[in-house]
Structures are given as C-alpha cells and as structure tokens.
Design goal:
This protein is an alpha/beta fold. The protein has 9 helices and 7 strands; from the N terminus they run E-H-E-H-H-H-E-H-E-H-E-H-E-E-H-H. Helices cover 40% and strands 19% of the residues.
Length: 211
C-alpha cells in the first residue's frame, strides 16, 4: 500500500478534488492536503484559466468528509511547503499547483507526480484536449509523469486514451478527461510505489497506448 502521499493544489482545482475522492474510494491514504490560497476568490484570481475549465474545485467539505488533514499556504514554492513535505516525510507528492521549482524538486526521496490532460510528449501545456480536437486527431489522452525542471518533459509513468467518439458537449468532454486523470493517477501511484524497476520510456509508453 502506498505510504506518505500528499496533494499540493490550488484551492479551486477540480482535478485534485476528483483524484482525492478516487484515492479515498480505493483506500489509498493521503497524509495531508496542501492548499494554495487563503480563500477561494484569491485562488481563482491567480488561476483563472484552470477555474473556467474546472466547474468545481477542491471543497473543504469533501476533505472533512474523508477526515483529511489540510493546510493553507501562500504559494507553491514557499519555504512552508518544503517544510511540510520534510516534516511529514512525504514520498509521493501529487501536484495540481503549476510549476514547481528545483528547491522542492530536489528534496531527497521525493517523487512529484503530475497528471497531464494530453498525450505526452506530443501535446504539452493545459489546453491539450482542445488542440487535439482542433488538429482533428483521435488520440485525446491523459498522462501521468514525474516532474522535472521543465514543462511536461519528465519521465512518463503511465498514459491512457479517452474512448472515442468524444462527447459533443464541451463540459462533458472535459469532465471525462478529469475522471480519466483520477484513474491514471491511482495507477501511477501504485507503479512508483513498487520496488520493480519502471520503464520510464516515452517511446514505449506512447506506442503501447496508441495500439
């Protein structure tokens, strides 16, 4: 069973909310949830694009329902976040808070997982599903990868395609992607938690998931 997992998220991130729910349903214990933003309005202002795409974000009532410990911090790369990770001996950090700097990336024995709404390495950034549809492709996918210092370039752990045909309604389309991110994240946690050597190969993962 995976141990010492923490979630680092903007207060209004819907994907984080769904992943937290999925982990609790699978009986995967979360040691703490680190929320960025003292109140929802401030968080929305800082992360407006994510808010418009996310319908509903992390809700305190859900954290309380699952009896999860949560803490508020001012920003992603603060010294406070680093101290929380070290104090709680966090081994796996799920990131829903934007770019993380090397000071946190380099914490010993810490793996930071990011769930990405696109098929890496082909589509990077936050609007991958939209660009995939715009380019008339049929490989909308979600990828879980380990963060490195660059944007969406870290080692791929697992990826999974969205079933085709996709919903015509945009909100339903995005909702299915968020749900898929939850599924992929659970699988990725279990993979990085094993003692087996993982094949962090973009080529192998992409070919496997395109078949």
């Amino acid at each position: 069973m995976p141990k010492n997992i923490a979630v680092l998220s903007y207060y209004n991130n819907r994907v984080a909310n769904l992943v937290i729910k999925k982990l609790c349903e699978k009986k995967i214990k979360i040691k703490c949830v680190i929320l960025i933003g003292e109140e929802e309005k401030k968080s929305v202002k800082k992360n407006y694009l994510n808010y418009t795409n996310s319908l509903k974000g992390v809700e305190l009532k859900h954290l309380k329902k699952y009896k999860l410990r949560y803490l508020f911090v001012k920003n992603t790369n603060s010294l406070e976040v680093k101290k929380i990770i070290k104090r709680n001996d966090i081994k796996i950090l799920l990131n829903y808070s934007g770019l993380i700097k090397e000071d946190i990336l380099n914490i010993k024995n810490l793996k930071i997982l990011n769930s990405h709404p696109g098929m890496l390495p082909f589509y990077r950034g936050s609007m991958c599903p939209e660009w995939t549809i715009f380019n008339k492709e049929k490989k909308v996918a979600v990828t879980s990868h380990i963060l490195d210092k660059n944007l969406d370039t870290g080692p791929i752990v697992v990826s999974k395609k969205l079933k085709y045909p996709y919903p015509r309604n945009y909100f339903n389309f995005r909702k299915e992607i968020y749900e898929l991110e939850g599924i992929v994240t659970v699988k990725a946690i279990r993979l990085v938690n094993t003692k087996k050597k993982l094949l962090y190969s973009e080529t192998l993962n992409i070919k496997k998931n395109l078949n």
